[in-house]
Design brief:
Elements: E1 11-14, H1 21-26, E2 33-36, E3 39-40, E4 49-50, E5 62-64, H2 68-77, E6 83-85, H3 87-109, H4 116-122, H5 124-142, H6 150-160, H7 175-187, H8 195-203
Parallel strand pairs: 1-2, 5-6
Antiparallel strand pairs: 2-5, 3-4
């Protein structure tokens, strides 16, 4: 099956697993249409792997904005799932995915770049601790409350993409956002909201 998506030029597709809100705001695009893509294609021509898990069998991909229904329709036509969400619900899911990528990649990297599945199976305690820490920091920074059972959802997604390798990369768009919260707290003589995250970044000499 070949999946072809034709996006309106005013639609922003977020395929980086990153925090792009500050960049959007700096460009006057805080209400830009967005897609949170929970699907992957291993290589050109292969069937896309949908982001369906044992906790979210309906799929995790979501779209927000004026053109969201059109994007969802195209993805459905290609055999992929996609939910249309309001702004706050979309923001929560975006932050959850950011927490996932920042947590699983950092834990995996400090254990030699093991796969996502190994992190979830063998280093669950570290993974869980980092998820909780980053979720708390994000909730306070954004003034929102996440849905319960985030850890279960993120571990389920880890099992769905268990073969993916781990590495801390695209720092500015991923872990860099949480580190900026730590730096802001330090400048204000406040406790680090992400002490474990900061410690492990320094351990790997990322910062």
């Amino acid at each position: 099956m070949t999946l072809k998506l034709f996006f309106n030029p005013h639609l922003l597709l977020d395929g980086t697993n990153g925090m792009i809100e500050p960049w959007l705001e700096s460009k006057g695009l805080s209400d830009a249409n967005q897609v949170l893509a929970y699907f992957a294609v291993s290589k050109l021509g292969e069937t896309p792997i949908d982001g369906k898990t044992d906790t979210n069998p309906e799929g995790l991909t979501a779209a927000y904005g004026k053109w969201a229904p059109a994007v969802a329709e195209r993805l459905h036509a290609g055999g992929l799932s996609c939910k249309v969400l309001g702004k706050e619900a979309f923001q929560k899911q975006m932050l959850e995915k950011l927490i996932w990528i920042c947590s699983v990649m950092l834990v995996g990297a400090r254990h030699g770049g093991v796969s996502v599945g190994v992190v979830e199976k063998e280093f669950r305690s570290e993974f869980s601790s980092l998820i909780a820490e980053l979720a708390s920091a994000a909730a306070i920074e954004k003034g929102l409350t996440f849905e319960e059972a985030m850890e279960d959802r993120l571990c389920a997604y880890s099992r769905a993409v268990a073969h993916f390798p781990t590495a801390v990369k695209e720092f500015k768009w991923r872990n860099g956002w949480f580190y900026s919260l730590s730096e802001k707290a330090k400048a204000q003589n406040k406790p680090d909201p992400c002490p474990l995250h900061t410690e492990w970044l320094k351990e790997l000499k990322v910062v």
